[in-house]
Design goal:
The structure holds 2 protein chains of 2 kinds.
Chain A (H helix, E strand, L loop, with lengths): L1 E8 L1 H8 L3 H20 L3 E6 L7 E5 L5 E4 L8 E9 L3 H14 L5 E5 L2 H5 L2
Antiparallel strand pairs in A: 1-5, 1-6, 2-5, 3-4
Helix pairs in contact in A: 2-3
Chain B lengths: L15 E9 L1 H8 L3 H20 L3 E6 L7 E5 L5 E4 L8 E10 L2 H12 L13 E5 L10
Antiparallel strand pairs in B: 1-5, 1-6, 2-5, 3-4
Classes of the chains: A alpha+beta, B alpha+beta.
């Protein structure tokens, strides 16, 4: 079963992280890298992706003429996706265990765990 | 089928990866669940055509649709590293409904693709004009200055 593990945070949280000492970020990345390697070895790794900082986010809507209208204004409380992992695991508990590892490596930030949509799963 | 692949930019062009995200509150998902069969079919058919267009134009990287927010769990590590799960979210929480990752020349092109996604038909078959969040994705730790 495929699950997506989502790490999210506010703009302020992301800014605090990016302002932290380079060695702390390096150490954090090293642990995440090790988790990725473990997942690759166990055959559970599907994909991972980190996103750019929230300040680069834009919201796009299509107008009647189909042209994009962009806006980069978000409420302060908005939780931005910071990155995700897609894992292919035997059951939900295993997905939660991996999310727990990522959380422990990342100052206990909560990780949202979701399955993929049913119609997607059927087409696989 | 979703294929995650690394972009292979040629020497002359520097492409950039963007993620296009659809978000919604639990109430938005519940409303979506009540759409008529026709409206759902029109929406799904639009999404298929849209994905095909992205593939045909060579910008497609990957896409995923997520399950219902009622199945979402929040996981934290306990003291011994064991996972502690929780399924309680504030009503205002925006859940990721799905995303596309595309590989394009510039942000304007990403916005144009997002605008097309925004025009997917909604209830009653009219363009929903739903907001799409657009962000560059990191190609590696180099983007963090590491």
């Amino acid at each position: 079963m495929k699950y997506i593990l989502l790490m999210s945070g506010t703009r302020a949280g992301a800014e605090t992280y990016h302002a932290s000492p380079k060695q702390d970020i390096n150490a954090h990345m090293a642990v995440l890298h090790r988790i990725n390697q473990d997942l690759a070895e166990s055959g559970e790794f599907v994909a991972t992706q980190g996103l750019s900082e929230p300040k680069e986010a834009k919201v796009v809507r299509g107008e009647k003429n189909g042209l994009p209208v962009t806006d980069g204004i978000f409420p302060e409380s908005k939780e931005f996706l910071l990155g995700y992992w897609i894992v292919d695991v035997a059951n939900a508990d295993r997905a939660y265990a991996i999310a727990g590892q990522i959380s422990a490596a990342s100052q206990n930030i909560p990780i949202e765990v979701r399955q993929f949509a049913a119609h997607e799963a059927k087409s696989r | 089928m979703t294929v995650e692949r690394e972009a292979a930019p040629t020497k002359t062009e520097k492409k950039m990866k963007y993620i296009l995200m659809m978000n919604g509150k639990k109430s938005d998902f519940e409303r979506y669940a009540r759409w008529s069969r026709e409206d759902l079919q029109a929406n799904v058919s639009f999404m298929r055509t849209f994905s095909k267009e992205l593939k045909d134009s060579g910008v497609f990287v990957s896409t995923e649709g997520l399950g219902w927010p009622s199945e979402a769990r929040l996981v934290r590590a306990g003291n011994d590293g064991e996972p502690i799960t929780d399924g309680v979210f504030p009503e205002s929480k925006e859940f990721l409904a799905g995303y596309w990752i595309i590989d394009v020349e510039n942000p304007e092109q990403a916005y144009k693709v997002a605008a097309r996604a925004s025009q997917a038909p909604g209830a009653g078959g009219k363009p929903a004009n739903m907001p799409i969040e657009v962000r560059p994705v990191l190609s590696g730790h180099a983007d963090l200055g590491l």
